[in-house]
Structure formats: C-alpha cells, structure tokens
C-alpha cells in the first residue's frame, strides 16, 4: 500500500501539470525600439499620468512576432516598418493585458525585443483619436525620467547593437 502512494503522487502531479499547461497560458508580446536618423528612440506614453515606455503589443493568435511588431507600430504610433526588423532577444516579464505595458499586476509571459531603423511615419495611427497614445523621440542620453531601469538598459543595448542578454 505504501508503494502505491509513491506511484500515485507523480501521476497526480503530472496530471495537474498538463491541466495547468492548457488552462493557464502565457502571453507572447513584442516591444519595438524604433531609432530615427538622429539616433533618438521612440517612446510612448499611454495616458497623461503614465510613464514613458517602448511601444509594445501582444501577439494575436496565429500572428507571427514580426507581423505583430509591424501592426503594433502602425496602430500605436502611425509608423510603417520598411525593412525586416531585427529581433534582439526575449525577456520574461509581467504585462498588463489592457495597456500592453509591463505591470506588477499583469499576466506572465515572454516579450521579444525588435530594433527598427528603417521606417516611415504614416499620416495618422489606425486607432481612434481618443485612444492614441502620446509619442515622442528621446536622445539616448536624455531618456524620460521614471523610465524603468531594465527598459533603459534594453534601449542602450539596442543602440549598441548588442542582444538584450549580453553584458
């Protein structure tokens, strides 16, 4: 009887692992470090009281990461990507599903960081005017105050041509 309990424990644990894998998914999102000809980085502010961050969006079901970054930049900032964006790496984070920004109360997942250097500004983002976030370009040496330190580090590494995991 005692041996049965030792065999049953791993089977029950394995069953719960399979159940959780299918019922508790993680998000897959993209973040773009858009760099202009002057070496400045595009930043987005979600609302008047929010801080600045890189433009980010969650990949939709069946969408490639490259398609997601192109859609996100077009919708959020009115930017069309002309050349293939450079994938610099992935990082784990907690993202707020509503805003797409990293949040302590969001869902866990993986985020791919892309660098975009070849782009053009479209006339208007493809979102209603009331929900269009503020966008601005910032020089590397004058990133906005209150920017999360890990975001600032990802921006610096992107400008230097390093992956986000290189020290």
UniProtKB/TrEMBL annotation:
InterPro entries: NUDIX_hydrolase-like_dom_sf, NUDIX_hydrolase_dom. Transmembrane segments: none annotated. One of its GO terms (molecular function) is catalytic activity. Residues 19-163 form the Nudix hydrolase domain. It comes from the Bacteria. This is ADP-ribose pyrophosphatase YjhB, NUDIX family.
């Amino acid at each position: 009887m005692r041996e049965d309990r030792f065999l049953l424990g791993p089977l029950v644990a394995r069953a719960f692992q399979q159940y959780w894998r299918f019922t508790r998914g993680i998000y897959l999102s993209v973040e773009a470090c858009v760099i202009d000809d002057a070496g400045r980085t595009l930043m987005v502010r979600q609302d008047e009281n929010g801080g600045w961050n890189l433009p980010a969006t969650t990949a939709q079901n069946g969408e490639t990461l490259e398609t997601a970054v192109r859609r996100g930049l077009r919708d959020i900032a009115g930017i069309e990507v002309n050349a293939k964006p450079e994938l610099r790496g992935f990082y784990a984070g907690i993202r707020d599903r509503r805003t797409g920004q990293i949040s302590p109360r969001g869902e866990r997942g993986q985020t791919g960081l892309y660098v975009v250097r070849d782009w053009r500004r479209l006339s208007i983002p493809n979102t209603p005017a009331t929900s269009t976030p503020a966008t601005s370009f910032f020089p590397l040496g004058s990133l906005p105050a209150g920017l999360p330190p890990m975001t600032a580090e990802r921006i610096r590494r992107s400008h230097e041509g390093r992956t986000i995991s290189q020290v």
